[in-house]
Design goal:
Elements: H1 17-26, H2 36-47
The chain binds zinc ion.
Length: 68
C-alpha cells in the first residue's frame, strides 16, 4: 500500500473484521496460498459473510483486453 513494501505476511493470533478488510486491501497482490495473513483475513471475512468463497482466486486473472 502506498508503495511501501509489505514485510509481514505471517498470520496473527487474533483478527478483527476491520483489520481483515485492511489486510485484504494491503495484501491484494499476494497469492492466498503464499500469504498466511491474507488467507486468515479472507477466512475471517467469509466466516462473517462479508466475502463470497471463491471471490479471492488463487491466481488473479488479468483483465480481459478491451475489444477494438
Ligand atoms: Zn501478503
Amino acid at each position: 500500500m502506498l508503495g511501501i513494501p509489505i514485510e509481514n505476511h505471517e498470520a496473527v493470533t487474533a483478527m478483527s473484521l476491520s483489520y481483515a478488510r485492511g489486510v485484504v486491501r494491503v495484501h491484494q497482490c499476494c497469492s492466498i496460498l503464499a500469504c498466511p495473513k491474507k488467507r486468515q483475513a479472507v477466512a475471517k471475512l467469509i466466516a462473517a459473510r462479508k466475502a463470497i468463497a471463491g471471490m479471492y482466486a488463487v491466481q488473479q486473472n488479468p483483465r480481459p483486453t478491451e475489444m477494438r
